[in-house]
Amino acid sequence: MTGTDLVSAGTVPGGDSTRGDAGGRWQNRPRARWAIIIGATVLLAAVMLGAILVGPAGLSARGVVLSLVDALPGIDVDSGLTDQQHAILWQIRMPRVVLGALVGATLAIAGAAYQGVFRNPLADPYLLGVSSGAGLGATAAIVAGLSMSSAAVPTAAFIGGAAAVTATLLLGRTVGGGRSETVIILAGVAVAAFANAGQTYLMQRHSETLRQVYSWLLGRLATDGWNQIQVVVPYVLVTIAVVMAFRRTLDVMLVGDTEAASLGVEPVRVRLLLIAVATLGTAAVVSVSGLIGFVGIVVPHAVRMLVGPGHRLLLPLSVLVGAVFLVCADLLARTVIAPAELPIGVVTAAIGAPFFLLVLRRGRVAR
To answer: Segment Disordered: which positions (predicted)?
Structure first.
């Protein structure tokens, strides 16, 4: 039997069997799994619709639903929305809600992938320096006088994040061949420290840009229509597809590299591939949203507590719950101090930090 066959049979620790886990009973029941996934999908649709309806310009639920139906090919219905309301729906609210869902889904599945390959429930998508590299790139673009609304800042942030992770992996390979997850993490710490030092230097030399830099660092989902979404969608789809394709392999890797190798898995190659893919998706969404913390830690951890560690259910639920979480966080950011707006990173930290501290205090870090 191959490693994936053993996982399916429930004979590999950490696989879909999850003996003794409160959520393990869902893992080997296909109908139950699909019921949970469909329920989470319906919840996401409801949350997105609610987020679209909330705002200073009143949009009726009926008008929004009919407008969405009218957008389907081959269907022509009158939504009853005015031209101004139609523009608000399709050029302001819809892109922002969709972007929030994409960012939340990507950060959550990237976090689940990181926690799987590193066998550490505290790992998150920013572990290897992507946030520090993206912050350095964005800061460099801002101090260069480029507008926050232009494509230059997201592009610089993406390049910075990707370059930081590339440097981390190259540095990790020079020490022990990059075969140990500990070596890779330590390399990420070193690269992140270097990027943070560079960013601090730029901020001190150009103090007049501090407000713009902190605005980006604290996260935001402001969009200029659908342009940003068109840029990040390919990265999001590739990230989700590749990580999902390795869901059984991630279960096998939970037993350790030596045991996984004996079951036919190449842990070093799989680890580097998933790190690269998850980080690429993270860098892409961070480049348009700024640094939004806790999504990649809290969401997979909460899902794991509910349904167990089996990645066959953990990964799709992380995508859906991550999208729900960030859309709700953005809704709070828009409404708590309206007409002003909170940085979404502040909202996710305010929600995520107490939750995670409570979990740690109770000693229930899910593995």
So the answer is: 1-26
Residue that is written with structure tokens 């998706």 in the block:
281
What is residue 77's three-state secondary structure? coil
**Other residues' Cβ atoms within 10 Å of the Cβ of residue 109:** 31
Which contacts of 265-270 are long-range, i.e. CB under 8 A and separated by 24 or more positions? 265/3, 268/177, 268/178, 268/179, 270/117, 270/246
Q: Exposed/middle/buried for 150, CB within 10 Å: 0-12, 13-18, 19+?
A: exposed
Q: Vertex 181, ends 180 and 186: CA angle to 5°?
A: 100
Residue 356 belongs to some domain of the structure: yes
Measured in degrees and rounded to the nearest 5, phi and psi for residue 176 equal 70, 20
Q: DSSP of 23-75, one letter per residue?
A: TGGGTT-HHHHHHHHHHHHHHHHHHHHHHHH-SSS---HHHHHHHHHHTSTT-
* Residue 366 domain-assigned (yes or no): no
Measured CA distances, 171 to 114, 166, 176, 185 (Å): 18, 8, 10, 10
* Range(s) of the domain holding residue 116: 3-361
> Which CATH number characterizes residue 284's domain?
1.10.3470.10
Pick the more confident residue, 123 or 161.
161
Number of domains in the chain: 1
- Angle separating helix axes 30-53 and 311-335, nearest 10 degrees: 10
Question: Is 211 part of a structural domain of the chain?
Answer: yes
* pLDDT tens-place string over residues 273-318: 998 899 889 999 998 898 898 999 999 989 988 888 889 999 999 9
Residues sharing a CB contact under 8 Å with residue 181, sequence separation 6 or more, in sequence order:
117, 118, 119, 120, 271
**What DSSP string describes 288-357?**
HH----SHHHHHHHHHHHHH-S-HHHHHHHHHHHHHHHHHHHHHHHHHTTTTS---HHHHHHHHHHHHHH
